[in-house]
Amino acid sequence: MRFELPLLLWLAPVIGLGLVGLAWWAQRKRIRLASAWSPAVAALAQRGARSSVPLIGAAALAAAIAIAGPRGGRMIRSDTARGLNVLIAVDVSRSMLAEDVEPNRLQHAIREARRLVQDLGADRVGVIAFAGQSYVLSPLTLDHPAVNLYLETLDPDLASAGGTNLEAVFRQGTQVLSGSLEGGDRAMVIFTDGEGHDSLGLAVGAARNLAKEGVRLILVAEGGVKPVRIPLRDAAGVLVDYKRDAEGEVVETTRRDDVLQSLSNAADGSLIPATLPDQAGAVREQLGALSRRPIRERRLADLMPLAWVAALVAALVLLVQTGTRRGTALAALGALTIAGSASGQRLPPGDRLVHAGKASEAIAAFRREALAGRGGDTAWFNAGTAALLAGRLDDAKDALDRAAGSLDPGLRYRALYNLGVVAIHSARKDSSVRAEREAEGLTRFKQALLLDPSAADAKWNMELLLRPAAPTSGGRKQGRSPPQPQQGPKQEQQQQPSSAGLSPREAEAILSAVEQSEAATRASAVRRQRLRATSSTRDW
Fold this sequence. Notes:
Number of strands: 13
Structural class: alpha/beta
CATH architecture of the largest domain: 3-Layer(aba) Sandwich
CATH class of the largest domain: Alpha Beta
Helix content: 40-55%
Number of helices: 18
Strand content: 5-15%
Shape: globular
Largest sheet: 6 strands, mixed
Radius of gyration: 31 Å
CATH topology of the largest domain: Rossmann fold
Distance between the termini: 63 Å
C-alpha cells in the first residue's frame, strides 16, 4: 500500500490526539457551566461523556488517513464503445522546431492532435513519434487522457536518430493497425512537414502497402513553403543558435508539398493543407465517413484509491458518536434531515455581463485579458460575444475566430454558433453580400452540430437558412428574425426561435431526412473505399 501524502500519515496520530484534547476541554467546560446552572442539567451533560471523546479522536484519525491518500490493490476495468482505430503519428525531427507557424511546427501539430483526440470520443487512439526512426509511444487504447499525456511530452530529444524516415513510420503504422482485430475501420493520421531524408520511392511503396491493408491515410501538412532557419533554444526559451550542417552552414527548412502529395496519391488518402485554420476539424470530417463497430477493451488498474474506506470509517464513527448524544448533536442531525433544499445566491436581474452603456469598456477589458494570456480562449469568446451584442460584427468575428480554436468542445461549440449568428447579422446588414454571408453562417452551424449533434438551436437556425423566406399576403417577403448568440456561464441564455418559418417539430423532421441522406452517402463512400483498398492497382 502507498500513500500520496506520507507526511500527513505520520501526523495523523498527532491530529487525533490534538482533537481528543480539544474535545475533552470543551466537554469539561460544558459540564462545568451545566453544573453552575443546576445539578439536573449537569447530569444530562455527563451522559455519554466517557465514549464521546474517544470516538471523536478515532474519527479524526480516520479522516487524516483518508486525506493522506491511501492506494493499493488492483482492479480490472472493462470499457465498451463503438468506434474506429486511429493511429496518430507526429514528426519530432529538428525541422519541426521551425517557427514559421506559431509557436513552432511541432507545438502547432501537438495542439491540433490534442483537439482531434478530444473530438474522437469512443474511438481507440494510439500515438507514434518518428524522426530518423519510428517509436510507438501508446498502443491503440480507449484511455484518451493517457494519449494526451504522451502528446504533451513529444520533443525532438525523444528520437535517438536524426532526420526524417517516412518509410519507417508507414511500416510501423501498418504493423500496429493490422494487429487491431476489433472495432471499425482503421486510419493513420500523420502530422509532418514532409521534409524526408529517406528515399521517396521507399516511402511511396510503404504508403501503397498501407492502402492494401485497408488503412485510410490522412496527411496533415505543417509549416510554410518559404525556407526558414531552425532555431535552437535553451531550457528557458532563449535563442542560442541556429541548426547547422556538418560544414557549419545554417540549415534552412521548408514544407514539401510535392512529397506529401505523392504519398497521399500512393495511399489513396487525403492531404490536409497547412493553411487550413482548423486542421483537427478537417481530419474529423474525413474520419466521419468511416465505419464504426463495437470495441471492447480490458485494462488492469494498479494501486486503486482507497481513501473512501477511511472516509467511510470516519463517517460511521461520527454517526455512532452522534447517536450516543441526546442533546444538540441529535437536534442538529434532525435539522439536517428535515431541512429543505438549499440554493446558492443568484445575481440580480440587472447585473448583466455587458451593460448597454459599457459595451466598449467590456470588449476592451476582455481583449486585454486575452492578449495578456490570463483568460485564454474564454476571454476571446467573452470579447466576441460582447462585441456581437454591441453590434460590432467585425470585432466579434475576429475574437470568436480565435475562440473557435479552443481545446474545450463546449466553448468551441458556442464560438462556432455565435460565428453563425455574426454571419446572419452581417447578411441582414449588407444585402449585397447576403448570399455569401448566409452560406458562411450555414457552414458555421454545421461545424457546431458536428460537436453537439443534439443542439436544437443550431439545427433550427440552420434550417431557417436552408429554407427561403415565405411571402406574405401583401406580396412582400416576410424576414426571419435573427437568432440570439450563445453566451457564457455568466450570461443569460436568450435563444428564441423565429416566429416566422417552420415549427421545431417540422425542422427536426427535415433535418432527420437530411441526416439519413448523409448517412447513406457516407455508407456508399465507405463501400467504394473498401473496394479500392482491396484492389492491388489504382482505378484511374
